[in-house]
Amino acid sequence: MNLVGALVALAALLAVTVGVGVYLRWRQSRPQRHIPHEVVEPHRLGADSLGEVATLLQFSTELCSRCPGVHRTLAAIADGRDGVRHLDVDLTYRPDIAKHFHVLQTPTTLVLDRNGVVQTRFGGTPSRDVLELELNRLSGETAVV
Description:
Elements: H1 3-28, E1 54-60, H2 67-79, E2 84-90, H3 95-100, E3 108-113, E4 118-123, H4 128-139
């Protein structure tokens, strides 16, 4: 193989790798709504109850660098809305919960309705605006533009 052919092959491989990386990063922060719905029992997570309107369930680990920022965002959203609760479950010592909810990365955030049914799933850092829209959808409020 000549030098030009090798450089073209390397450039093509680099372009494909970057493209796949950009696609995966884009897909990671988007909400997933086509998920199997199950009812989440708060006692299994170490909580006494869920929110009256919705629950923001965050899965994190001790070594997660983005989890504290997501925790602050979710807590602020929950504090600013009546009936919304934020629960943070540390999966470091709970691999059973990570396996049950298929958590492959932290942070992972689930938006639960008042009955504990999983409505939306976010892998990575969720956007505050998208979370607000999801909560508006669950509470029946109209979005403020």
